[in-house]
Amino acid sequence: MYSVTGETELGKVSLMSQDEVNQAIQKADSIQKHWKNYNLHDRAKILHDWADRLVEKQEDLAFMISHEVGKGIAAARKEVVRTADLIRYTAEEGVRAQGDIMRGDSFKGGSSSKLAMVEQEPLGVVLAISPFNYPVNLAASKIAPALVTGNTVVFKPASQGTLSGKLMIEALLETNIPKEVIQFITGKGSEIGDFLVTHPKINMVTFTGSTKTGQAIAEKTRMIPVVLELGGKDPALVLKDADLDLAVKQIVSGAFSYSGQRCTAIKRVLVQNEIAEDLVQKLKVEIEKLTVGSYKEEADISPLINEQAADYVEELIQEAVEKGARVAVGNKRKENIIHPTLLDFVNEDMRVAWEEPFGPVLPIIRVQTEKEMIKLANLSEYGLQASIFTKDVQKAIELGAELEVGSVQLNAKTERGPDHFPFIGAKSSGLGSQGVRRSIESMTRDKLFVLNL
To answer: In CATH, what is the architecture of 18-230+429-452?
Structure first.
């Protein structure tokens, strides 16, 4: 395994065969009932110990995250600390999770002699598949709630992110957790992917990645719970009464942090004509301040994850320019680095208006009315998040109610978190809900005991 620039060998992992994957799943399945019967506080204690070890290994983990996925070292350290906080909160929330008591006569015609106890049962073996861009945080957001609820886990990290995931799991295995409870899987998705998601011993799949892959997983799994966190084309709606300085600050941060390689990045701006020119000029000034270079130098814009990703972003930019989009700033490339690019006068005929680039390019779509904004926002196949910039809170709520997205941010960039908030994708952006409590709920099922007194 090499660094994102391909210049440094970071480590090696073996690619597992289907037979080896099957053995790992069988181990997770064989110990699941034992793990389920662990004292809940003991499971929570293991998670707290895991969080402590991640913090202790913060520098090693941050180094690996930084070099493996091209993230600045400060952002990589922040990911490790954030992950430890997430794990601790999950442990505490798991201990607080309670069942329910229901009286029979609380429903008309029901009998007072009946009393129902509703408990939460773990699903069994959870398959957790994480993406490259947050190789530790988004993995732990799946693994921790599964473990605290009594599930065992088969964990498959992204290829670029495998070594970071491996270090994270090694820290977990330093706790008192039974070793078979967490199974670390490596291999090419093309060779083991279908085998994993269709294995009869897998009882749930939680996946973060591309919409295409997520849709394929949903079609193949059948009859087991699936939680999918997929792509996005998050719009920022800038109304004519918006505080432009605030909007510009949030849009630039939202669109270009980690070079735009986030499903929650702002990926298009819908702005009313009256203020469009002012907004574009202010955005241009701020974008030109962004530094471009190596992640080792803490540059704002650093290499994309691979050459194919850079090719795709460049292709979208060139297609838009050929169809009449104006380059306000950017449109330069060096190897895998795409300079931050602002495209003005983008229209519906351009692919960049609809496709998710996963890179540092921001299209500006000028509109006349708020109604047109909503129409264009909702025409997208995606529905992850949206931002609305306006001084009129009532207007923002009214417009937000019409947007077909999981979350609406008022006067702020689209982003995930805090990690205990529900995280939802509509349409092709996802299936199910995440966030600590929601994730815990998704990994259990109700079991009813009826007492006849």
So the answer is: 3-Layer(aba) Sandwich (3.40)
- Equal CATH topology for 18-230+429-452 and 234-427: no
Per-residue tens of pLDDT for the chain, all 453 residues: 778 877 788 888 999 999 999 999 999 999 999 999 999 999 999 999 999 999 999 999 999 999 999 999 999 999 999 999 999 999 999 999 878 999 999 999 999 999 999 999 999 999 999 999 999 999 999 999 999 999 999 999 999 999 999 999 999 999 999 999 999 999 988 899 999 999 999 999 999 999 999 999 999 998 999 999 999 999 999 999 999 999 999 999 999 999 999 999 999 999 999 999 999 999 999 999 999 999 999 999 999 999 999 999 999 999 999 999 999 999 999 999 999 999 999 999 999 999 999 999 999 999 999 999 999 999 999 999 999 999 999 999 999 999 999 999 999 999 998 999 999 999 999 999 999 999 999 999 999 999 999
* Residues in CB range of 198: below 8 A, 6 or more apart: 220, 221
User: Domain residues of the chain, as ranges?
Assistant: 18-230+429-452, 234-427
- Active-site annotation holds for 263: yes
CA 378 to chain CA centroid, Å, is: 21
Count other Cβ atoms within 10 Å, centred on residue 249.
15
Domain 234-427 classification at class level: alpha beta
Active-site residue, from 68, 79, 263, 356: 263
Q: Please pick, among 229, 314, 356, 370, the residue that the annotation labels catalytic.
A: 229
Taking the whole predicted model, whether its pTM rises above 0.85 is answered as: yes
DSSP string, 76-141: HHHHHHHHHHHHHHHHHHHHH---EEEEGGGSTT--TTEEEEEEEEE-SEEEEE--SSSTTHHHHH
Radius of gyration, CA atoms only, the chain: 23
